Amino acid sequence: MRPLTDHTAKPLLKAGGQSLIEYHLAALSRAGVRRVVINTCWQAQKIVEQLGTGARYDLEIVYSHEHTALETAGGIVNAIDLLGEQPFLLVSADIWASLHFESLTLEPPAVGHLLLVENPPHHPNGDFCLDQNRISLKNGPRFTYSGVGLFHPCVFRDLAPGFRPLREVLKDLIDRRLLAGSVHRGPWFDIGTPTRLAELDAYLANAESTSVDTPKTD
User: Fold this and answer.
1) Residue 18 has what DSSP assignment?
2) Which superfamily is assigned to 10-206 in CATH?
3) Which of 140, 161, 205, 209 qualifies as a cystine partner to 131, CB 3.0-4.6 A?
């Protein structure tokens, strides 16, 4: 995302006049979430200065700082004591989607639930297969991980701290048939390049409303 991120944290990049992370905070608040843990590393202080305590979003925001980037699973382990004992939503700050977060659920024995999307042009081969309602590496049609999931903290609580990608944790759950999945059929943008950020900005400018639509999942 350089040069855009040379002086701005990626979650604070704007589209439609609002930063990417603020769309998530508004949707989480509408879904009834009241406490949000934000992992920070690059330009951490700017994130804290802009979002503050979360009061203006009707949220309590707490921050988990990483001195070096720990990747997704490593960041969760670093913040695990802040997450409580109940299932928590995992939301990547560099996506935009029309979501109702409350639509994600965990049905035992599943301890994780990934929201998937149709494979975008920049990622045509996808990430995972969906075998009925379970994530698979080889059975069923392939989809792309949206950057949104729901997890029970037991998945991460006993993992050693340090750098750890999410995929290795997911593979263990997949092997044990403990990772559920569903497909989001609404708008979704992965903001991985300045071009895709511009595409989202144009989409929001042309939309009749930037309110969150009811997602279609299966």
Assistant:
1) E
2) Spore Coat Polysaccharide Biosynthesis Protein SpsA; Chain A (3.90.550.10)
3) 140
